[in-house]
Write a structure and sequence with these properties.
Arc Repressor Mutant, subunit A; 6 helices; 39% helix
């Protein structure tokens, strides 16, 4: 079955999901945020078939989420690095991580926790806030159509 493109959708969520494609893409970005750079590192961490991993990495490069750079050690192989666009996906991953932690784990179940590097303390929960910083409840937000202008900030 052929996937329908959402690239021209008015909804930013639909366009985002079109760009991401599937869960493997976010898992690759997760590993890159943790420091993975080489094809073999992604392959070992994810256990993904080489052909599928290669295709996902090519798509990430084509979408401007990752870029290939010469290896830092001067070796013949290239390394995969997140672009600024790719690094901005960290917030999306944190939101998904926190949702999963709150909804998909039982009491006493082992779970990985995101911590602040400098202190080792868990990070705070993401919250919806108004532009002036006021916290907002889920029932205090809605979606309206506007002309794009701040998409890349």
């Amino acid at each position: 079955m052929r996937r329908t493109s959402l690239r021209g959708a008015v909804c930013p969520l639909a366009r985002s999901l079109d760009e991401i494609g599937d869960w493997w893409t976010l898992m690759i970005v997760r590993d890159a945020l943790r420091g993975a750079r080489r094809f073999s590192e992604f392959e070992k961490s994810l256990g993904l078939a080489k052909n599928i991993l290669a295709q996902r990495l090519r798509q990430l490069i084509a979408n401007g989420i990752m870029e290939l750079r010469p290896a830092a050690d001067g070796g013949a192989r290239s390394e995969y690095h997140l672009t600024e666009k790719g690094r901005r996906l960290q917030l999306v991953l944190v939101a998904l991580r926190q949702w999963g932690a709150d909804n998909l784990f039982g009491t006493g179940e082992e779970i990985s926790v995101m911590v602040e590097t400098a202190t080792g303390q868990p990070i705070g929960q993401l919250k919806l806030v108004a532009e002036d910083g006021r916290p907002l409840g889920l029932d205090e937000v809605s979606v309206v159509r506007r002309t794009a202008g701040r998409a890349a900030t």
